[in-house]
């Protein structure tokens, strides 16, 4: 397609709209009933965790006003900020996976057929993501347990106690990611091998039953 200076604004807008058809962010795999249950639970956790950002914003405003208006800084409030921000971010990781809203660098992946994309997802999940997450949980659970046993607190004066809580959230986030990855894996196997039986295929705003 060539663009000349004689094109009207409507033609330019149409060209931009047409270009959007070639941008595919979501890989639409069939849904299975275990995936529906898992995705619902992970999504609920992620959406609930998103409210932590509202709390973080409130704490930041309170801390800034206290520091600059009343000259009262607080190490504890500073640690509360990054503790809550870290927890909100970590608990939202599983949500991004089940909704396929995580960052993708898939120049090759997006050019393949749906089955080709499914094969890449299968190998990526089985040989890359799940082994990494398994190793992370293996390391993080003793890490959090050791912190609880030692009664670990902040090293800063007047900092927060119970450092094990944040470390436990770190371990929990990897567990949730494993569950989300398994849900994704079930969708892939449903497409490639028909197991579990697909119950629905989503395409944009349309939903159609899979009778196979």
UniProtKB/TrEMBL annotation:
Coiled coil regions, renumbered to chain: none
Localization: Cell inner membrane
Segments forming domain Tripartite ATP-independent periplasmic transporters DctQ component: 57-188
Spans through the membrane: 51-70, 82-98, 119-138, 164-186
Keyword Manganese in annotation: no
Major localization listed first in the record, in broad terms: membrane
Keywords per UniProt: Cell inner membrane, Cell membrane, Membrane, Transmembrane, Transmembrane helix, Transport
UniProt KW Acyltransferase keyword: no
Membrane topology: Multi-pass membrane protein
Description of how the protein assembles with itself and partners: The complex comprises the extracytoplasmic solute receptor protein and the two transmembrane proteins.
Protein family: Belongs to the TRAP transporter small permease family.
Role noted for this protein: Part of the tripartite ATP-independent periplasmic (TRAP) transport system.
Protein name per its UniProtKB record: TRAP transporter small permease protein
């Amino acid at each position: 397609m060539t663009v000349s200076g004689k094109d009207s604004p409507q033609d330019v807008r149409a060209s931009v709209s047409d270009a959007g058809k070639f941008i595919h962010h979501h890989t639409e795999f069939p849904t299975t009933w275990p995936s529906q249950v898992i995705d619902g639970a992970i999504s609920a956790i992620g959406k609930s965790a998103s409210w932590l950002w509202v709390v973080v914003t409130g704490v930041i405003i309170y801390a800034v006003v206290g520091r600059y208006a009343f000259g009262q800084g607080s190490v504890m409030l500073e640690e509360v900020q990054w503790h809550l921000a870290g927890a909100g971010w970590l608990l939202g990781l599983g949500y991004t996976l089940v909704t396929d809203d995580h960052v993708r660098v898939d120049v090759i992946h997006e050019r393949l057929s749906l089955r080709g994309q499914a094969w890449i997802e299968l190998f990526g999940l089985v040989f890359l993501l799940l082994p990494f997450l398994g190793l992370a949980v293996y390391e993080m659970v003793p890490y959090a347990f050791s912190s609880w046993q030692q009664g670990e607190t902040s090293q800063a004066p007047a900092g927060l106690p119970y450092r094990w809580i944040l470390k436990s959230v770190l371990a929990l986030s990897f567990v949730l990611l494993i569950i989300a990855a398994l849900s994704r894996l079930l969708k892939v196997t449903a497409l490639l091998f028909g197991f579990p039986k697909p119950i629905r295929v989503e395409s944009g705003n349309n939903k159609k039953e899979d009778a196979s």
